[in-house]
Amino acid sequence: MGHFSSMFNGWARSFSIKKASSSGNCGGREAVEVMAKEAKKNDLILHSSGFVNVNGSNNFTSLYSKRGEKGVNQDCFIVWEEFGGQEDMLFCGVFDGHGPWGHYVAKRVRESMPSSLLCNWQETLAEASLDPDFDLQAEKKLHRFNIWKHSYLKTCAAIDQELEHHRRIDSFNSGTTALTIVRQGESIFVANVGDSRAVLATMSDDGNLEPVQLTIDFKPNLPQEAERIIQCKGRVFCLGDEPGVHRVWLPHEESPGLAMSRAFGDYCVKDFGLISVPEVTQRNITSRDQFVVLATDGVWDVVSNQEAVQIVSSTPNRAKSAKRLVECAARAWKRKRRGIAVDDISAVCLFFHPCSIQQVTVPKES
């Protein structure tokens, strides 16, 4: 409790309270950029296939991406250990681009989100700590969640606005999903825009690892998503040669045909129901929770939650867990979806405890 209180007071003293401008800048932007540069220099940030294992950290993160058969790889990811200079914080995320400029959009959002989120979090934290009605002792966990949720909502709105006016990236018919996690101490905060998915592996009472899906795949046919799109005059339907694949269409054109209902960019359908608002959730990590998998739909289209947990938990070397999951998914594509071009496939495996998983069994699906 003392550490968390001092952190509130420290941010309040260190960052001036300024309203965000239309570009999403905040009072601590320069300080955040310095933090990011230092983190890169100290190998605390990784955005290529590999792993992050900082001495003394409870986190171990494995990352891997494989280009599909549709051209350039439009997936990307990031891990930032000691996020914001805080030893007990980590940020990681996966981004799945689509459209002609999708790989540029995905990389731009990956580049912008961590710093923008950290900046907005610092501002929100400082503002909350200076509020005379703020009572940290009463509802610490609730306040933490509300602060992160507010910061994520503000960040995503600013990023989407910035993308629309970016001079070098054409996001009118291109976009990206974004699935990110912040670990702060023994809590994780998950924010999802799109149809990538986060799955937690947790120990059951009988000693088996079980999957817990932490996010919703935001597909256009979900009732609440379809209702919003239709109310905005957009359309949702499947093409004849893609039964079961619901897409978002303009009112009077068979375009763009987006297979997700939330994304950054894609301004051609932003007035017709597509949104970039994240779903933000929280989970408190227990000793039973072993790891979480963040992956693009290239994994989940062919690998079940249970299979993903089994693959990762049975990999002897945790550093290779993401690569093994991606390679298993690539083989499953060729087996289950013959004649369909393999999608880009990317995964981040975030382990919560420094010790390897010992003596656990993952029951296979029947």
UniProtKB/TrEMBL annotation:
Residues 60-352 form the PPM-type phosphatase domain. PROSITE patterns: PPM_2 (PS51746). GO terms for biological process: negative regulation of growth; regulation of intracellular signal transduction; response to water deprivation. Keywords: Hydrolase, Magnesium, Manganese, Metal-binding, Protein phosphatase. Coiled coil: none annotated. It comes from the Eukaryota. Its cofactor is Mg(2+); Mn(2+). Its EC number is 3.1.3.16. InterPro entries: PP2C, PPM-type-like_dom_sf, PPM-type_phosphatase-like_dom. It catalyses: O-phospho-L-threonyl-[protein] + H2O = L-threonyl-[protein] + phosphate; O-phospho-L-seryl-[protein] + H2O = L-seryl-[protein] + phosphate. Gene3D superfamilies: PPM-type phosphatase domain. GO terms for molecular function: metal ion binding; protein serine/threonine phosphatase activity. Belongs to the PP2C family. This is protein-serine/threonine phosphatase. The lineage of its organism: Eukaryota, Viridiplantae, Streptophyta, Embryophyta, Tracheophyta.
